[in-house]
Amino acid sequence: MTALQVDPTMKGNQVNISIVEDHQRLKLVDSVAHLETQGLYVWFGNRMILADINLAFPENSVTALIGPSGCGKSTFIRVLNRMHEFIPGAALAGKVFYEGRDIYEQDVDPVDIRTQVGMVFQKPNPFPTMSIKDNVLSGLRLAQIPFSNPDEIVETCLKKASLWNETKDRLDASAQSLSGGQQQRLCIARALAVNPKVLLMDEPCSALDPGSTRHIEETIRDISKDMTVVIVTHNMQQALRVSDYTAFFLALDGNPGQIVEAGLTKDVFKNAKDSRTHDYVNGLFG
Amino acid sequence: MNTQTLDTSTMKPQYPWKKSRPTVVIANSLIVVIPMSVYAFFFFFTDLPGALIFIAIFLPIQIAMAVIMTIFALGKRRVGDAVLSVLSVTAFSLVLALLGSVLLSVAARGLPAMRFSFLTQNNIYISPTTELTYGGVGHALLGTLTVVAIGTVIAVPLGIASAIYITDMKGRLAGFVRFIVQAMSGVPSIVAGLFILAAFILTDFVGFSALTGGLAYAILMLPTVARTSEEVLKLVPKELRDAATALGSSRARVIMRIVLPTAKAGIITAVILGVARVVGETAPLLLTTSNTNGTNLNPFKDPVATIPVYIFQFLGSGYESSIQRAWGAAFVLMIVVAILFALTRVFSPKGKAR
Questions:
Q1: Is residue A7 part of a domain?
Q2: Which of A5, B36, B40, B322 pairs with A106 at a CA distance of 20 to 30 A?
């Protein structure tokens, strides 16, 4: 239970999310936090973007990251699978533990981390040169993971992403022939195919219509049975619908983003300890 | 609910914005007809040269007509539009006329020499008095294709690799490499030839051959291939690279499996543009391939004929049939370039890198 215990001396407005409060959490205390950041600071150039982020993501849970634009949520999840370092000027301090190991240690292979911590982006980005089927299998091929039953993988992943019924008759069609919502579900299927243990989603529904959004939310609930999901969203209702935990990020007047409040989603939304959280989740600012 | 079905069979598409008031139609035709008749008058009834009439009389009258007619038909606000239209249509017609006259003159003088044997036979036993039915540019066409192929084989991998270095690897020297590539595009072609001559031929490393010609061509192709590839690689969305990286792909696989296939059409365009850049270059070949009348099938040894050098050789000889052969060869070269550009159009992604 080590990693779950965020430092109890943690100051100020952060809520220790390892406080055991309900039945679901009780089980988790015995397990190790799947993914956890400790004292994380992030910069672009000399500008500090995030300050002192301490968050633990329990295994097989869904955590929503909410907060106004520009408070560093997307930057934060890119830190979690080592995509942050590709942005020019990126810098970072603190620790990010994945299964008990700091992923920024020198002997960690970032490519290895990314196969286990998958990512779905804000804008659907299927590979335009590939068919639907090849898109689903692309992760396995790119990461050089051997596989023997392509058809089975394609079917399972497309079903998980609730895209199977719409595409089963045209798996060889170009991924670009799909609608935006379908493309995003294809991207989810593609991310699922490499069988990651954590899935990071950066506003996956921001460009989608309500129907596609509902599909994807169902998918998130479904995959979180055996996957840890971290989702950035601007949709409060979505956070309420899909997540077990919620962390509220806020960056005030050019200050770096910080966590104002984090905890069980129902607490954050119904009994916010901080008035800013209360105002934000109720649409009073932001 | 109304269950009556709407009968749409009588509706036809219409284009209301294409209709013009009669005054506008008349004004437009006057803008064209009046300056043209003035031009015709001066052209047929005075000794003034056509170009002078065009610049000093036709253009001012046409612009004046456009201004007057527009004020009359559409109002003052549209005068700018009218003047801009007149100027851009004029400039466009001039360019078209120039290009057309180049094509037409080459075709007119080159076609009499064209026949199948001209494309297949070489220049052995051909004297300046030999009839056009004997001999041809077969050896030079083959030579040009060989030299271009060698240049391509050398320049394309280097060019694409340097483009990848600049766009995807973003290495420490990316800015420097790009600067050098850009500077290389200013290398005069004869300097490229001189360099190969000094570095390979005068040092007895290799003699005059298709290989040395290809090396000189490679120097000239490289900047075009590298710059164009860089532009098309930049068109590959960053999101695709991110997606591949986030799936656990190594950098090499992102480039080989995602970036290059996505940019495939553009890369092919880059290669063809590189070839088109050099295919008519004469100066470097004079210094590196030399010339010969026979067909040389060995690209690594002995001088080889090429079409540009063939044209150079025959235009200088002064005999009527030789000059006709030169025009014929020029026509062949033009067709080769035309085919290459047609290929670029075929491979170009629609609306993107061309």
A1: no
A2: A5
How do strand A245-250 and strand A228-232 relate by DSSP bridges?
A: unpaired
Q: ipTM score of the complex? A: 0.83
**A65 assigned to some structural domain:** yes
Residue A62 sits in a domain of what CATH number? 3.40.50.300
Q: What are the counts of helices (DSSP H) followed by strands (DSSP E) for chain B? A: 16, 0
For residues A43-62, average pLDDT: 92
Q: Give chain A's radius of gyration (CA, Å).
A: 19
What are the beta bridge partners of residue A174?
A131
Q: Is the pTM of this model over 0.90?
A: no
**With contacts defined as CB-CB under 8 Å, which chain A residues touch B248?**
111-112, 114-116, 139, 142-143, 145, 194
Q: What is the pLDDT of residue B170?
A: 82
Q: Does domain B138-347 fall into CATH 1.10.110.30?
A: no
Per-residue pLDDT, averaged over A1-7, amounts to 37
- Comparing alpha-carbon positions, the chain B residue that sits nearest to A86 is B242
Interface touch B247/A83, C-beta < 8 Å = no
Task: Give the model confidence (pLDDT) of A124-173 as tens digits.
Answer: 999 999 999 999 999 999 999 999 999 999 999 999 888 999 999 999 99
Tell me, what's the pLDDT at A286?
60
Contact residues, B window 180-239, toward A, CB-based 8 Å cutoff: 237, 239
Cβ-defined contact of A187 to B243 (cutoff 8 Å): yes
CA distance B1 to chain A (A): 27
With bands split at pLDDT 50, 70 and 90, how would you rate the model's confidence at B128? confident
C-alpha–C-alpha distance, residues B219 and B197, integer Å: 13
Domain span holding position A85: 23-281
How many domains does the structure of chain A reveal?
1
Closest-CA distance, A183 to chain B, in angstroms, reads: 13
Question: For residue A174, which residues of chain B lie inside 8 Å, CB to CB?
Answer: none
Give a yes or no: residue A10 inside a domain.
Answer: no
Q: In sequence order, what are the residues at sequence separation of 6 or more whose Cβ sits closer than 8 angstroms to the Cβ of residue B196?
A: B212, B215, B216, B219, B284, B287, B288
| Tens digits of residue pLDDT in B310-320 | 999 998 888 88
Q: How far is A269 from chain B (nearest CA, A)?
A: 32
